[in-house]
């Protein structure tokens, strides 16, 4: 359902800091680091809070909804096994964190900055998964639980 044909990116191995984040992707859960001291979120995971320097970054689940912050359409594959065109984007989540990701399930040239998106998952061969984003027809989230199990669209 993820439409990830040809999507075989080079993915880094988990390390001490990123292991919890990667483990959650196996269950298609998107985690964000949330600082225990200043309560702000950050991504990607780091050992220290980038906002206040606290060494107590905690984890919280993202609702998986956001908007396209910027994007670019890749027409020339950096590797021969990648299918083009595809869309690389910065997505700003409702929680405030920004992810570098891919946009899928819409013609590459049809995307616009500000488009609402929701997370989907591209499964990797080792059981982990990468968050990608697809068009979100629903209105802006209002403290609703994430639709982890519903795929109706
Ligand atoms: Zn902090």
UniProtKB/TrEMBL annotation:
Classification via PANTHER family: BLR3430 PROTEIN
Residues of the ChsH2 rubredoxin-like zinc ribbon domain: 22-57
The organism's place on the tree of life at top rank: Bacteria
One family name in Pfam for this protein: zf-ChsH2
Domain ChsH2 C-terminal OB-fold: 59-121
The protein's name: Zn-ribbon domain-containing OB-fold protein
Coiled-coil residues: none
InterPro entries the UniProt entry points to: ChsH2_C (IPR002878), ChsH2_Znr (IPR022002), NA-bd_OB-fold (IPR012340), Thioester_dehydratase-like (IPR052513)
Lineage: Bacteria, Bacillati, Actinomycetota, Actinomycetes, Streptosporangiales
């Amino acid at each position: 359902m993820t439409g990830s044909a040809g999507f075989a990116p080079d993915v880094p191995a988990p390390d001490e800091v990123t292991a919890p984040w990667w483990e959650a992707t196996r269950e298609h859960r998107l985690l964000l680091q949330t600082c225990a001291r200043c309560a702000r979120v950050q991504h990607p995971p780091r050992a220290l809070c980038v906002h206040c320097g606290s060494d107590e970054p905690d984890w919280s689940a993202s609702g998986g909804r956001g908007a396209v912050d910027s994007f670019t359409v890749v027409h020339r594959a950096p590797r021969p096994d990648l299918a083009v065109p595809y869309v690389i984007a910065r997505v700003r989540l409702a929680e405030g964190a920004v992810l570098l990701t891919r946009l899928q399930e819409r013609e590459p040239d049809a995307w616009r900055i500000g488009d609402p998106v929701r997370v989907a998952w591209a499964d990797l061969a080792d059981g982990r998964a990468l968050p990608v984003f697809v068009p979100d027809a629903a209105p802006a989230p209002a403290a609703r639980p994430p639709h982890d199990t519903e795929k109706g669209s």
